[in-house]
Amino acid sequence: MHKQEIDYKQFVIIVAGGLGVRMGISTPKQFLCINNKPILMHTIQKFYDYNNNINIILVLPPHHFSTWENICLKYNFILNHTTVAGGDTRYQSVKNGLDAIKFNCLIAVHDAVRPLVSTSLIEKCFTVAKNKGNAIPCIGVNETVMEISPNGSKQLNRNNIKLIQTPQVFDSEMLQTAYKLPYKINFTDDASVVENAGFKLNFVEGEEQNIKITTELDLKLGKFYLSYK
Fold it and tell me: Is the overall model pTM greater than 0.90, yes or no?
């Protein structure tokens, strides 16, 4: 990508709490290999490819610390990052990551199992967040969308439906303020926390290939995309 001078601090919190349950495996999803390298390493590498001065905070369950250290040794992975203990929920894990940041800056939060994000999308999200306070990538849906309940079903206007992705980028003051809220079960990502705190969200066009690898099919798609990137 075209390198530009960056005049403000940038952080990314990479949330890696997956257990591989939906794949029916014991290995955490972020440690599975695609193209001879763990998914998590692909993800970290993408942010360094974007900006090799970015500050990376990796949030892992404490019992995965030694596993990750051994994996880094095995693959000679030396890209600088700080490891922070995760919590019982994604909300608490991000909150723990935020506690490690002491600067006014821009903060991206990204799923560890989205290794296919492009540097251009990362750049776009940081640029929009710098100008507007936050940036939330999303894509539309092509299929018919129905809301189904015990009382029947209702077709929804798919033009108003978006699939939300990461990295979600925020001004640090905005994100820190939002994460002072008490936890709610509907806090499924950082955008939902920030919106609940009363801030307006700014949506940007995401990428079809920026999939979250949670199933065996996703893993196969990930291998395909990385083979032809």
Answer: yes
